[in-house]
């Protein structure tokens, strides 16, 4: 457990972050300044906030868990496939799509499919932005580092996230993410080299895991169905609201593209470190849950003072992820749910207020559900798969296609994918392994395709996006 003065350093860091949020709260005048930082973020801030927010508790603790369970295949299948699949997002999709200040992902859905699809998409996206996996990771870290129960540590840390997000908006989030980016890089990389040498390198690691040789094989550590599900899930970035928010907040489309390409190289390096750490955790603490073993390994091997930097880094990665998604959830509630249900024209001040209320609601919802999951990735994949199974096809189809667009197509695509995922999640097939997301995406596409052949064509309505050539 951490000492009193180490806990004092963590409290000081938390107060500094809250102070940053308060500083930027004085510059919040409207939704553009609150949600997009006046579209003024340079390359460095985009890189910092993307890396820090994308690699939260799921990307760090969750990756260690998966490496301990599935071995090197967690990198060879999950990491490589994920980044190759996201490359078009950086090269072509993201830079060419400029989302206007008054346009969110549900607004885009409305422009192509109508209000009913937009409202359904907004509700699903709000649930997705609760980010259960990050709160689950918080609880695991708190139990090991402080001996505090998951619910208590989750409440404390989520409260800090809410205060930071409510006060500073996107600029507060981006600046704190940049600081936490450096803490995260230091924290994630300090433990692996020392422990890798101690265990005897690849030879020693292979010997330590001789009873589970599949963990050292690039593809044999997980089933084909699990690998296919992870590959499919990796394309969820194309429907992720925080990615589009970052591209919109960049001071130019070219900057957004350069930033994401930079992130790819950093993410691949992080993945190598995390996967090797997971294997070391499996070899060192074979009978302990991997996430708890990870934190135990860190606290028992790093000297006092240094280990607190690790805790700050890993908690910082979780905080930087939650504040990004909570901000997106707040904007969704204010602009896309409340606005559509009431059909009232809200002032900029009211939109900011409703967004802040949405942040609190999303945090409360996440806290009430997150600790029903034992593993970080289980929580992440559950809520992420609901969103992707329902919204991926309608969103990507609207952005990239030029054919007919009907309200029925959007509704069938969302409902078909969502209900398929829910059915196979609740009633899994006993005859053979089937990941619900793998079947939900094709069903969603078929339903979307058929629906767009029926009804009134809405493709001639106002465009949801403005295509900008570099």
TrEMBL record:
Topology class, membrane: Multi-pass membrane protein
InterPro entries assigned to the protein according to its UniProt record, in alphabetical order: Na/Glc_symporter_sf, Na/solute_symporter, Sodium:Solute_Symporter
Transmembrane segments annotated in the record for this chain: 6-24, 36-55, 67-85, 117-141, 153-171, 221-238, 259-285, 305-329, 350-370, 376-401, 408-428, 434-451
Keyword DNA damage: no
Source domain of life: Bacteria
Places the protein is found: Membrane
UniProt keyword annotations, A-Z: Membrane, Transmembrane, Transmembrane helix, Transport
PANTHER family: SODIUM-SOLUTE SYMPORTER-RELATED, SODIUM/PROLINE SYMPORTER-RELATED
Family in the record: Belongs to the sodium:solute symporter (SSF) (TC 2.A.21) family.
Name assigned to this protein: Sodium:solute symporter family protein
């Amino acid at each position: 457990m951490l000492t009193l003065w180490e806990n004092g350093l963590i409290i000081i860091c938390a107060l500094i972050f809250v102070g940053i949020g308060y500083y930027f709260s004085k510059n919040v005048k409207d939704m553009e300044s609150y949600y997009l930082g006046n579209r003024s973020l340079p390359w460095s801030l985009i890189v910092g906030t993307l890396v820090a927010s994308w690699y939260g508790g799921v990307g760090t603790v969750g990756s260690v868990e998966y490496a301990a369970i599935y071995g090197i295949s967690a990198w060879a299948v999950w990491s490589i496939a994920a980044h190759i699949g996201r490359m078009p997002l950086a090269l072509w999709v993201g830079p060419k799509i400029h989302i206007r200040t008054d346009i969110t992902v549900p607004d885009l859905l409305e422009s192509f499919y109508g209000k009913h699809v937009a409202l359904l998409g907004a509700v699903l996206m709000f649930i997705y932005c609760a980010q259960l996996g990050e709160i689950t990771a918080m609880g695991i870290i708190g139990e090991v580092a402080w001996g505090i129960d998951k619910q208590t540590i989750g409440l404390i840390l989520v409260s800090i996230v809410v205060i930071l997000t409510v006060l500073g908006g996107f600029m507060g989030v981006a600046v704190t993410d940049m600081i936490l980016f450096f803490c995260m890089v230091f924290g994630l990389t300090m433990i692996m080299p020392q422990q890798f040498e101690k265990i005897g390198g690849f030879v020693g690691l292979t010997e330590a895991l001789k009873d589970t040789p599949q963990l050292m094989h690039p593809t044999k550590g997980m089933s084909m169905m699990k690998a296919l599900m992870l590959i499919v899930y990796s394309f969820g970035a194309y429907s992720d609201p925080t990615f589009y928010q970052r591209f919109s907040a960049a001071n130019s489309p070219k900057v957004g593209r350069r930033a994401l390409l930079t992130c790819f190289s950093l993410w691949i390096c992080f993945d190598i470190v995390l996967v090797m750490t997971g294997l070391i955790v499996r070899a060192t603490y074979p009978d302990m849950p991997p996430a708890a073993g990870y934190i135990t390994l860190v606290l028992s091997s790093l000297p006092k003072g240094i280990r607190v930097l690790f805790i700050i880094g890993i908690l910082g990665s979780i905080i930087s992820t939650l504040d990004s998604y909570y901000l997106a959830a707040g904007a969704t509630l204010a602009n896309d749910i409340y606005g559509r249900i009431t059909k009232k024209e809200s002032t900029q001040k009211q939109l900011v207020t409703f967004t802040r209320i949405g942040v609190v609601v999303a945090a409360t919802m996440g806290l009430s559900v997150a600790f029903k999951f034992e593993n970080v990735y289980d929580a992440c994949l559950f809520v992420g798969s609901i969103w992707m199974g329902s919204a991926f096809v309608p969103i990507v189809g609207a952005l990239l296609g030029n054919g007919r667009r009907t309200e029925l197509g959007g509704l069938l695509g969302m409902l078909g994918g969502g209900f398929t995922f829910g059915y196979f999640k609740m009633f899994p097939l006993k005859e053979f392994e089937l990941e619900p997301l793998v079947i939900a995406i094709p069903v969603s596409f078929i339903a979307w395709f058929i629906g767009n052949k029926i009804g009134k064509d809405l493709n001639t309505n106002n465009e949801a996006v403005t295509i900008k050539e570099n």
